[in-house]
Each structure stands twice: as structure tokens, then as C-alpha cells.
């Protein structure tokens, strides 16, 4: 049965995804972007940015008590990061599935980290872990005007919306 437009719109959500400096330097941008794109999610914002250490500390503020926090923030601010917002039904949770477990030694093959990374400190990609973090991270990394609203003509084929 086809979903109606209203039900579809109500399920739409946005998540913050970033390719960290290791993923950018290793030439994995197109590989990673294509996995989200081919799945059927819609890209609504994208930019290449070198975050300051202070910015990295804000992004990872939940982890400030962890022993790896300082090294992690140094690393995130060590080079260009590809910051993105992706939109789709269930994209927050399923985006995390595409990414795979935090430790690439435990990520399933077929996931981004499972296929493309080996150690937890260089796991190439970040994805918001829930609706509140997604909202906070999108607001931290992007100005509202950088989020592009447009119609994706493939949507009726991806979602079966009538
Ligand atoms: N991290 C690390 N050592 C650890 C755990 C995490 O270096 O023991 C890094 C890793 O890069 C991870 C990031 O800290 O992606 C954020 O940790 P989180 O638990 O939020 O994992 P994620 O949400 O990225 O899967
Ligand atoms: Mg996290």
C-alpha cells in the first residue's frame, strides 16, 4: 500500500554525518557519500571545514570525562572534515547502521567502518546517535540558511508516496 504524503512527511528526519580527517585524507569521500546517496537519503547540506580544537570540544562535549577526549579533539581539528546533513525516513538510526559499531574491530563487514577502518581512534566517520543529538549537532555545524530544501524527484520511487 502506498503511503500518503502526510504520513511520509511526519516520518522525515535529519541527521548530522561527518567524514573525519582520516576519511578525507584517505580519499574516501565519494565512497562514503555514495553509500548514503544510493540508499535513498537526501543530502541537504555539505561543506568542507577545518574545525578549531574549541569547536571539536563542543562537538564531543558529552565525552569530556573520557581519557581519549583530548586526543580525539586534537584529531578532529587536525585537517578538513566533510560535514553533512542527510534527510530521510529513519535516517538517524539507520545511518548509524550504515556506519557500523564505534570500534571497527567490532563493526560488521558491509558497514562503512567494517569495510574501511581498522582502529577506534581512526574510524573515519561520525553520525548523530539520536534525535536530540542530531538537532544539536546540525545547529552546531550549520547555519539554518545552509540547509537546502528541495524536492527530490526520486522520492516517490524511494518511499512509494502517492
Ligand atoms: N573513541 C576513541 N576511543 C574509544 C572510544 C571512542 O578514540 O575508546 C573515539 C572514536 O573516534 C569515536 C569517538 O571517540 O568515533 C566518539 O565516541 P562515541 O562513543 O560517541 O562513538 P561513535 O558515536 O562515533 O560511534
Ligand atoms: Mg557518538
UniProtKB/TrEMBL annotation:
It is an enzyme of class 2 (transferase). One of its GO terms (biological process) is GTP biosynthetic process. Its EC number is 2.7.4.6. Its main location: plastid. One of its GO terms (cellular component) is chloroplast thylakoid lumen. Keywords: ATP-binding, Kinase, Magnesium, Metal-binding, Nucleotide metabolism, Nucleotide-binding, Transferase. It is found in: Plastid, Chloroplast thylakoid lumen. Its cofactor is Mg(2+). ATP binds at residues 20, 68, 96, 102, 113, 123. The keyword Magnesium applies. The active site is at residue 126. Residues 12-149 form the Nucleoside diphosphate kinase-like domain. Belongs to the NDK family. Major role in the synthesis of nucleoside triphosphates other than ATP. The ATP gamma phosphate is transferred to the NDP beta phosphate via a ping-pong mechanism, using a phosphorylated active-site intermediate. Shows the highest specificity towards GDP. This is Nucleoside diphosphate kinase. The chain holds residues 75 to 236 of 236 of the full protein.
Amino acid at each position: 500500500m502506498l503511503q500518503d504524503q502526510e504520513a511520509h512527511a511526519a516520518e522525515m528526519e535529519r541527521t548530522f554525518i561527518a567524514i573525519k580527517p582520516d576519511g578525507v585524507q584517505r580519499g574516501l569521500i565519494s565512497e562514503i557519500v555514495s553509500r548514503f546517496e544510493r540508499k535513498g537519503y537526501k543530502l541537504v547540506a555539505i561543506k568542507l571545514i577545518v574545525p578549531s580544537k574549541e569547536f571539536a570540544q563542543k562537538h564531543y562535549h558529552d565525552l569530556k570525562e573520557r581519557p581519549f577526549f583530548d586526543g580525539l579533539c586534537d584529531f578532529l581539528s587536525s585537517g578538513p572534515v566533510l560535514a553533512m546533513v542527510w534527510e530521510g525516513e529513519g535516517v538517524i538510526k539507520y545511518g548509524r547502521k550504515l556506519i557500523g559499531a564505534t570500534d571497527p574491530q567490532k563493526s560488521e563487514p558491509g558497514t562503512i567502518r567494517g569495510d574501511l577502518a581498522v582502529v577506534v581512534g581512526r574510524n573515519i566517520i561520525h553520525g548523530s546517535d539520536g534525535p536530540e543529538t542530531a538537532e544539536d549537532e546540525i545547529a552546531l555545524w550549520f547555519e539554518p540558511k545552509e540547509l537546502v530544501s528541495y524536492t527530490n524527484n526520486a522520492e516517490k520511487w524511494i518511499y512509494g508516496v502517492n
